[in-house]
Amino acid sequence: MFRTGYPFFLSFVSLASLFGNEPPPKIAISAKEHAIRHPSDLKLERDNRPFPFNPNPVTKDVPKPWPKSRVLAIPQGRCLGIDGVAITQDNMLLMDASYQWHVEPHKHRLLGSPFLPPPVYYDAVVAEIGALATKNYYHWMIDVLPRIGLIEEAGIKPDFYHTVYPEEPFREETLAILGIGPERIIPAKEDLHIQAKTLIVPTIVSMPERTEKADFMLCAPMSSIQFLRKKFLLEAPKQTGRRIYISRKNARGRRVLNEEELVKMLEPYGFEFPLLENMSVVEQAKLFASAELIVAPHGAGLTNIVFCNPKAHIIELSPRRVWSWTFCFWAISQQLKLHHTYLRCKNEKGGNSDMTVTLSDLEREVKISLQSVTRKLLRVPK
Questions:
Q1: What is the pLDDT of residues 55-86, one digit of tens each?
Q2: In a domain, 39, yes or no
Q3: Within a domain: residue 329?
Q4: SS (H, E, C) 315-344
Q5: pLDDT for 14-33, tens place per residue?
Q6: Does 250 reside within a domain?
Q7: From residue 54, how far is each of 5, 50, 62, 86, 343 by CA, in Å?
């Protein structure tokens, strides 16, 4: 069984089906390098706007620049796995579309594989839009959907799209809005190896230059933010000035242990407490577009700040033992000119463990944010 995101991808159950005549790639190249080798395969190339701001105030990281976004049309190209791996007609791994955590691109696990499953041939134009962790709302919205935007920009209309589907309602909803029905999806499977008459491969827009190991969170460039706003923020919100708290009480990690007390503290300030898992993507977009102040633990729900209006305030409840991925939402805020504040919270176990919020610190940050809001100041308790 093949899965790019985990250390063991062979299953004794499916081992027999994997023996085929197709050798695995031994070399990884970039889309830029492929375009030099095969100029006619390059269908789109454009610059991404660089980050115009200073290092992250908490992590001190400077977001890495994005390379140019590209779309390739590879004759007899191949793709496989749940996380999406693209292989060129020269049997080379396309590193811009084949992501693996914490590993240099030339050490991708597939390059050391002894064999691949025999490919299933599609006499059609197939687009590879897989990515790591696409069960996660952030990665689906930031890593996958903007790749469809690149394909649209290139003027290509694939017959099929290869990706994980549907499992999560937000996948089906967003693809439907983009005009991609289930009949055009080839559901990715761990041991499904596809060869297409033409494989369309957009680079992962949120991926920095692949020159070192990927131990950072992927970040959304402005082009991705604009694409998501255009497609899913379908109308201006009728209500504005809302104050919302986004809970992670149903998540597996980074929950707020003292959330009951936190809610009681926020209620007098006019906060609402919606559950995003009960809302469609379009409803979430409208909610965030209507907000002037958002308080939330670090998590996928904050992806929706891409729909916020400039000058909205974000208070991100961040684990005290911070990893470099913490700057992904701050980077979105910087590009949209949102006010983004980190509130460091106790999480003794580190990483994704649950957090305890110091309520006096949070109340102080809420008051600071509301003091800069020019309207509805009478709603601020004394």
A1: 777 767 666 667 789 999 999 999 998 888 99
A2: yes
A3: yes
A4: EEEEECCCCHHHHHHHHHHHHHCCEEEEEE
A5: 443 444 557 889 899 999 99
A6: yes
A7: 32, 12, 7, 34, 19
